[in-house]
Amino acid sequence: MIATVVIVEMSAVGGALIVGIAINMLGLGREKIKVGNMLPAMFLPLVYFPISHVIGSLVS
User: Fold this and answer.
1) Domain locations in the chain as residue ranges
2) 9 with 49: CB under 8 angstroms?
3) Are 10 and 42 in contact (CB under 8 A)?
4) For residues 20 and 33, is the Cβ–Cβ distance under 8 A?
5) In angstroms, rounded to a whole number, what is the distance separating the alpha carbons of residues 39 and 24?
6) Closest by CA position to 40, among listed 20, 17, 8, 6
7) What is the DSSP annotation of 8-45?
8) Whole-angstrom Cα distance, residue 46 to residue 60?
9) What are the pLDDT digits (tens) for 4-56?
10) Which of 40, 52, 58 is nearest to 5 (CA)?
């Protein structure tokens, strides 16, 4: 089961990606934001939080 904090962080990243898509569609900015390059960030919380939990339990 995925922890609540992971779901919240994945939702935040998804929101940022949606904002990037909207900026591209509206034509704001001088260059297009390469949203496709940011897609791997969607899965970063799945890796980060379990590792930080393990390291935190080892340290304290």
Assistant:
1) 4-59
2) yes
3) yes
4) yes
5) 15
6) 17
7) HHHHHHHHHHHHHHHHHHHT-SSS---GGGGGGGGGHH
8) 22
9) 999 999 999 999 999 999 999 999 989 999 999 999 999 999 999 999 999 99
10) 52
